[in-house]
Amino acid sequence: xxxxxxxxxxxxxxxxxxxxxxxxxxxxxxxxxxxxxxxxxxxxxxxxxxxxxxxxxxxxxxxxxxxxxxxxxxxxxxxxxxxxxxxxxxxxxxxxxxxxxxxxxxxxxxxxxxxxxxxxxxxxxxxxxxxxxxxxxxxxxxxxxxxxxxxxxxxxxxxxxxxxxxxxxxxxx
Length: 173
Known about the structure:
The protein has helices spanning 48-59, 63-70, 75-82, 90-110, 113-120, 159-171, and strands spanning 8-11, 26-28, 43-45, 126-129. The protein is mainly alpha-helical. It has two domains: 1-21 and 122-173, no CATH class; 25-30 and 39-111, no CATH class.
């Protein structure tokens, strides 16, 4: 018996509403990593990349970089600042990064109804970040690569695509 081939919604570049670099304003308090008693101040974010890098700085208690990130809306500058976070520990980051990305996208999509509709329109597909160079968050291939339509041939892990697919399914419940 033949199985139905898996369908994908490929995305890449800031123009895509599924990209971490897509401009979409939302407000949220950062994730409280250190003191559950402390109420953290709600901030405005211009992209999920800004959210991700801000929370990275807060996770490692780098207030200087966190402030710099809040003072730029350019996602690529936020990413560059995020690479400068002091006392960065890859093992700690690995424990928290998926939650950070998922919660940022939850805020982005639930506070921007037009974007939420675009996310819901992908139902029945797996979202896949067709970044040829990103082997963690992307599939490690471009969308027009013949291997992109077979997840077993992907070079990357598609962490962002899976987070978005799971989030879409949660929001549809």
